[in-house]
From TrEMBL:
Species assigned in the record: Linnemannia schmuckeri
Protein name: DNA polymerase epsilon subunit B
Region (Disordered): 87-132, 212-241
Record domain DNA polymerase alpha/delta/epsilon subunit B: where: 407-609
Localization per Swiss-Prot or TrEMBL: Nucleus
Originating gene: DPB2
Classification of source organism: Eukaryota, Fungi, Fungi incertae sedis, Mucoromycota, Mortierellomycotina
Amino acid sequence: MSTARAKLVIRKQIVRSFKKQQLTLQADAMTFLEDTLEAQNVPPEDLNDTLDNIVSGYVAREGLSLVSRARLEIVLESMQKWTHHLHEKPTRNTLDPHKSQQVLSQSTNYSSSQHNYQHSQQRPNPEDLESIDMDSMRDRIHEMEGEQRMGERRQYDDDDLFMEGTHDGMSQMEGFADDDADDVDITEMLHVIDAFSMPRWRWASDIKTFTRADSSASANPRESDAQRNGSTRAATTSNTNHVLGQAEEKTAMFRARYHVLLQRIMRNECFAPPVFTGGMEQDRYLKLTPLKALKGRCGERFLMFGMLVQMGDGKYCLEDADDRVELIMDHSQNSAGLFTENCFVLVEGQYTDDNVIIVETIGLPPPELRDETKKVFGNIDFLGAPREMRSEEQLKVIAQEYEDISFVILSDIWLDQPKTFATLRTIFEGYSNSTLPLAFIMCGSFKSQPFLYNGLESGQYRDGFNALAELIAEFPTMATFSYFIFVPGPNDPWGASILPRPKIPDFYTAKIRSLVKRSIFASNPCRIKYCDQEIVIFREDILNRLLRNCIVPPCGDVVIQKQLVRTIIDGAHLCPLPLTTRQVSWAHDHALRIYPIPDALILADKFEAYNFKYQNCHCMNPGSFPTSDYSWMVYYPASRRSDICQIPKPVR
């Protein structure tokens, strides 16, 4: 591998192998690994297996996302028994493709960067590396990193995947990027993020930014790192994640919602005080008054922000982080939105001698465009998706170039109804004879009646997924190249009535996972990261629940679907309902947060289908598949539009 083209192939494969584990290579580590592989004359067909072995060993030993040359050398030295496989292909075990058997061969030595690596005859399990003396290894790492810093010409940022220190290296990397852009695998641009794997961020008022608050990471760091650096397309639920969480997390949940909205309000231009106040009237901007500042100011009008709560005597109050005050809403005028208990609102009214507020106007907090949020918190990964090598601009160009990419969205796929399979067969035949969708998003419920926990129901439920697997397998191209994303609904097992709901248990989906290559069973809600777009999927009959629990009547001059979307997006939460009506896991409430505003929002509801834009977010509801005469929705991310589709009825 002495030609420039061969070196480019090696570099691309190195980047892809480490990217799968979300690892960042420094430039000197990249050069060292290139030289090592080139010195060993690794055949092209063995390059992928060799790099997978090295990456697995690094993750088992270090687990750090930033790979330096010193750490890589130490890990390779600790993997002495692996170095034999750098130049000889392992023999695959036909029973387990992940295990391999190595034929005996003689030991050889090779020298690289003042280190000799001895070859042996068999490959160890990465877990065997636990027996190595960690103290001596850490001392060695720090020693080598100190020497390395002395000769470095520049510092490399943690966010850089890799950079070359010379102009020749930079030009080579530009050529690599151009060559890679022509070979984009669009299927690798899609990632499904489970609700239980999303990072948890809390607002820190003292430093005016978000800080990471992952309890699972502190409970089991090794398991959390493994999950964060996993190569699976959809993250799974960790054993350290508890459904309910600690007792103090209930109050922390509402406090987190409050601070997320409050910091957004205070950055709004209508609430921002002028920098230069000379000659300007004080009423030129809106001023929020904390509830604790109302004492002794009877007869004055105030604008307040807080959460609507109902007391034991049935009276409603407004509550913020420090105090609460009773509300009288007999003659209030409300803006568009559905106001329920536990939702956060702006209230304008007069404070009386009886320590109550006579409400004049009630409304939702002002929204903030996604682009504006990214300008302020662009360095914070709210989603938790795998890090992309390309910039947001490059990803946006890729998404626009693939104009035919589409997502087929269906809700209420009742697998216990024969007509469902007949209709799905017709849909699959139509798409298999035309352009294949990138993904089929199938939302539950996958059963027409609530699931009963007995042996008979379990067998029938599993048979429904087995029949669906056999149906999809009849279309080999679709079963191989299209993603099938399954989101549980109200009638599916299990998770009771608590949000977010975990994925459907593997016991029921074994066959479909074996026959459909890219089947993903996600939580409810879940999110999709496609190129530069974030798509939120939520299966819940939320509209009827909100209407039944409204405190004040909805505004009559706005379409009810738009009021629903405005309530969710302006309130930055998928389920602004009281906990007595819809239980939410305290520890995972952040997974229901709509902040920043996504590019697309799928609210799979039994209500009639709709699609429109609000605050540059494309909002859509495919409707119920069986009750809407078997209609579905198709979303085109390149143009950010959607269409309601239906099988044409035969003409008599």
